[in-house]
């Protein structure tokens, strides 16, 4: 079985490293020819995942057509860029198994990664790989468990193909639940970071995480997800990791927001655009998502973090 990882950011590179350590015929595709040549030569992605050496068997290519000859294609580019990427290259993806490896909701379409694949490449089989993991941990061979969600008829084979001795995949057919868990937790991670960055303390962060989880569940239920999926790796598991670790870019972005500090705008922070996309979805489905909406208001510069907290605390008292 051949695998290509499309996108040589931190996550794509980490997945390619672990997959190539366990399987033959793994290719990492980078869109930039110079970057691909350098990675092939020095056996490392210095820019995105410095220090993680490539296994000798990992191929690196800047030819998308060649890379797409693989049977299974993992797409590891940020969510907001997937739409254009799939449109531009749709001819190469027909009848392929496309595994989305990103976490978010598209701000224009309101679709998650698999929804985007299904819309733009309907002949493909769409799956998603998501859950608690930092690229540096996966690439370093540290034990990691993720959720693989996809259609029943392909799922067990895919699970076998994409598992490695250190990367343990759990399967589910609840694609909506898996992708919503990964998308929504990033918004709550920004809120958690903001709580800590503004000096509100760890008890406040626990409140944000718990009430954030409650609103994640409300939206997921309304959109047809299974509650059990949200309590698994792709929901609760990833929420816990992302809201408590400074390795998370979403959490660090929140820290900077809370502290009124600057943040490198070129960093991938999926939760920022996803917050806005989710607020629109919540309004459409009439779901109460106060923390997500507060983050959207802060990002739109309609509220400061302190004003957002005041507004959250002054809501009418309610049952848990
Ligand atoms: N980094 C992690 O620890 C981690 C872990 C789990 C999941 N993820 C998810 O993986 C996804 C990607 O994140 P990342 O950490 O790899 O981001 P990154 O910022 O490290 O890299 C993004 C990559 O996408 C590439 N890219 C952008 N536009 C492209 C296009 N049009 N065509 C081809 N390539 C393009 C960039 O060149 C870059 O290499 C995100 O959804 C993120 O949530 C990341
Ligand atoms: O760095 P972040 O915030 O994108 O988080 C990375 C992963 O999603 C954690 O599971």
Proportion of beta-strand residues: 5-15%
What's the average pLDDT?
A: 98
The CATH architecture of the largest domain is 3-Layer(aba) Sandwich
Number of helices: 15
Our Rg estimate from Cα atoms comes to 19 Å
In angstroms, what separates the terminal alpha carbons?
49 Å
Order of helices and strands: EHEHEEEHEHEHEHEHEHHHHHHHH
Number of strands: 10
Q: CATH superfamily of the largest domain, called what?
A: NAD(P)-binding Rossmann-like Domain
* Structural shape: globular
* CATH secondary-structure class of the largest domain: Alpha Beta
Spatial strand arrangement across the major sheet: 5-2-1-6-7-8-9-10
Describe the protein in words.
The chain has 320 residues and is of the alpha/beta class. The chain is 54% helix and 14% strand. Helix 4 (79-93) packs parallel to helix 5 (113-120) and helix 8 packs antiparallel against helix 9. It is globular. The mean pLDDT is 98. The structure holds nicotinamide-adenine-dinucleotide and SN-glycerol-3-phosphate. Nicotinamide-adenine-dinucleotide binds at residues 7-12, 31, 48, 76-79, 81, 85, 101-104, 133-135, 268, 270. Its EC number is 1.1.1.94. It is an enzyme of class 1 (oxidoreductase).
Give the SSE layout.
Layout: E1 3-6, H1 10-22, E2 26-29, H2 33-42, E3 44-45, E4 49-53, E5 59-61, H3 64-67, E6 72-75, H4 79-93, E7 97-100, H5 113-120, E8 125-130, H6 135-139, E9 144-149, H7 152-162, E10 167-172, H8 175-197, H9 202-222, H10 227-230, H11 233-244, H12 249-259, H13 270-285, H14 290-299, H15 305-313
Parallel strand pairs: 1-2, 1-6, 2-5, 6-7, 7-8, 9-10
Antiparallel strand pairs: 3-4, 8-9
Helix pairs in contact: 4-5, 8-9, 8-11, 8-12, 8-13, 9-11, 13-14, 14-15
The structure holds nicotinamide-adenine-dinucleotide (NAD) and SN-glycerol-3-phosphate (G3P).
């Amino acid at each position: 079985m051949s695998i290509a990882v499309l996108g040589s950011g931190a996550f794509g590179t980490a997945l390619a490293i672990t997959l190539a350590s366990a399987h033959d015929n793994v290719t990492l595709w980078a869109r930039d020819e110079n970057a691909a040549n350098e990675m092939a030569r020095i056996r490392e992605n210095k820019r995105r995942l410095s220090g993680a050496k490539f296994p000798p068997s990992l191929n690196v290519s800047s030819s998308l057509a060649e890379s797409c000859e693989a049977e299974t294609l993992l797409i590891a580019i940020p969510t907001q860029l997937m739409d254009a990427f799939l449109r531009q290259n749709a001819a190469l993806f027909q009848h392929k198994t496309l595994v989305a490896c990103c976490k978010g909701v598209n701000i224009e379409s309101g679709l998650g990664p698999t929804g985007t694949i299904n819309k733009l490449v309907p002949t493909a089989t769409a799956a998603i790989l998501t859950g608690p993991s930092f690229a540096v941990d996966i690439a370093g061979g540290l034990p990691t468990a993720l959720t693989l969600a996809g259609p029943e008829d392909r799922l067990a084979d895919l699970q076998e193909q994409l598992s490695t001795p250190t990367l343990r995949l759990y399967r589910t057919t609840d694609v909506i639940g898996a992708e919503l868990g990964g998308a929504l937790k990033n918004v709550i991670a920004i809120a958690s970071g903001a709580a800590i960055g503004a000096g509100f303390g760890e008890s406040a962060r626990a409140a944000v995480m718990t009430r954030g989880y409650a609103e994640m569940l409300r939206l997921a239920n309304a959109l047809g997800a299974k509650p059990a999926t949200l309590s698994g790796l792709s929901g609760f598991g990833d929420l816990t990791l992302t809201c408590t670790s400074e390795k998370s870019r979403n959490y660090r972005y929140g820290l900077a927001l809370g502290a009124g500090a600057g943040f490198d705008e070129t960093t991938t922070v999926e939760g920022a655009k996803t917050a806005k996309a989710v607020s629109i979805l919540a309004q459409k489905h009439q779901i109460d998502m106060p923390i997500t909406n507060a983050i959207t208001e802060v990002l739109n510069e309609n509220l400061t973090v302190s004003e957002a907290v005041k507004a959250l605390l002054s809501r009418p008292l309610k049952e848990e």
